[in-house]
Amino acid sequence: MLTDRGLPAAVRDVAGRSPVPVDVDLPLAARLPTGVEVTAYYVVSEALANVAKHSRATRATVSGRVRGGALLLEIHDDGRGGADPAGGTGLTGLADRLAVVGGRLSLSSPAGGPTRMRVEIPCAW
Ligand SMILES: Nc1ncnc2c1ncn2[C@@H]1O[C@H](COP(=O)(O)OP(=O)(O)OP(=O)(O)O)[C@@H](O)[C@H]1O
Ligand SMILES: [Mg+2]
Questions:
Q1: Which ligand 1 atom minimizes the distance to the CA of 79?
Q2: In CA terms, which of 4, 13, 74, 81 is 20 to 30 Å from 60?
Q3: Structural domains in the chain?
Q4: How far is CA 93 from CA 6, 32, 88, 99, in A?
Q5: Digits of tens for pLDDT over the chain (125 positions)?
Q6: What's the pTM?
Q7: How many whole angstroms from 13 Cα to the centroid of ligand 1?
């Protein structure tokens, strides 16, 4: 799916399988380098898995844009908050994987919610 149809279609596919309804706003005009698409897909998959498992959210959104030579992704849910990388291996795995490609992850998830994950993936590497 990702290889054949690209990131927006692949993200819509994962979003469509989420038990929590997800709005996708990912208007990408062109294909991105394969490594960027694969990394982004991995981020969205883990983030939405976390929404389903932990958030008790009623809705989530995935949005993304290319700006300044990087793909900026944001995954938001209206759930209970409290996401903590120390609590599992998924979030630290994402941070490690992003570090390898010069990317960044920032997480805002106060107790009571909402949870917002922002990820930056450089497009030239
Ligand atoms: N969207 C979210 N809303 C609320 N809590 C979250 C959310 N995402 C993560 N968490 C909390 O942060 C913890 C760490 O998440 P992380 O993804 O690292 O581990 P995990 O999902 O528990 O296990 P795995 O290693 O399988 O990913 C979770 O156990 C959960 O308590
Ligand atoms: Mg997880």
A1: 3
A2: 4
A3: 2-122 (3.30.565.10)
A4: 23, 22, 9, 10
A5: 999 999 999 999 999 999 999 999 999 999 999 999 999 999 999 999 999 999 999 999 999 999 999 999 999 999 999 999 999 999 999 999 999 999 999 999 999 999 999 999 999 85
A6: 0.97
A7: 22
Q: How far is the CA of 47 from the centre of ligand 2 (A)?
A: 7
Q: How far is the CA of 37 from the centre of ligand 1 (A)?
A: 23
Please work out, in degrees rounded to the nearest 5, the angle formed at the alpha carbon of residue 38 by the alpha carbons of 46 and 62. Answer: 50
Q: Distance between CA 125 and CA 111 in Å, rounded? A: 36
Q: Which amino acid is at 37?
A: E
Pairing state between β 60-67 and 22-25:
parallel
108: which 2 tokens?
Answer: 């805002």
What protein residues have CB closer than 5 angstroms to ion ligand 2?
50, 90
Question: What's the gap in Å between 80 CA and the centre of ligand 1?
Answer: 12
